[in-house]
Amino acid sequence: MRYFFSVVLFFTCFGLFGQALPISIDGRFDDWQTSNISFSDAAGDGGVLDLISFKVSNDSSNLYILLELSESFRLNTENELYLEIDGDNNASTGYAINGIGAELGWKFGGRYGFYNTTITTQIEHPSISFVAAPTVTSNIFEIAIARDAQPTGSDFLFTSDTVKICFVDQSTGGDYMPNQGTTFTYVFDQAVIAPPAPIDLVKADTSYVRLMTFNTLFNGLTDQNRIPAFGRIFQAIQPDIITFN
């Protein structure tokens, strides 16, 4: 359960400037190489998880975050790591944590989040167009959240060009990034940039065998509402071998 409270403290602020980049959430991180909006945390100060750094960028559609930890783990399973975002840059609204008022608190291990206004509402991935990759064990993850997200279908999550961001491991002795007493501020870059180049699905060599693995969600292959989507995916990818899970 989340509680609201007010507190007056002094905080050191990092960040401030934005940088638009053509980021693609694909489990590859070369498109982050030119990013210069970042925060680095002290190594070895974590509990279950040791948070190392994060980078932030945006385009006209999404806020992007690249998260790094000291060791590999599964971002979407069995952890108490939260992403906290103050979407109106107002510490007196939202859920008070580490000097910010977080309208969004996303619990990675639970695969759900909280939208904090005068009440707290539990939300799911589609509510904010949340995407993260990779979905397997790693120590680096990239995250996207829609800039026009309306978590409950009415109010916008981002109501200011300036937002504050922090990560909190709420397990016992968990790490903060930035550490308590420090805030990270990001200002959206309004520059218009070209979208990432689409990935060509044509085989680089016709002698290659294309293997596709597909999680169908229980008996999804027999769900009449989903069969057309399966057909479109298979026709686009043209796999030679498919394993269904």
Overview of this protein structure:
The chain has 245 residues and is mainly β. The chain is built from two helices and 17 strands. Strand 11 (131-133) and strand 12 form a beta hairpin. The longest helix has 11 residues, at 227-237. The two termini are 35 Å apart.
Shape: globular
First and last CA, distance? 35 Å
The secondary structure category is mainly beta
Radius of gyration: 20 Å
Percentage of residues in strands = 35-45%
Instruction: Count the E strands.
Output: 17
What is the makeup of the main sheet?
8 strands, mixed
The parts where pLDDT drops under 50 for at least 5 residues are 3-11
What is the helix/strand order?
EEEEEEEEEEHEEEEEEHE
How many helices? The count is: 2
Helix content: under 10%
Mean pLDDT: 91
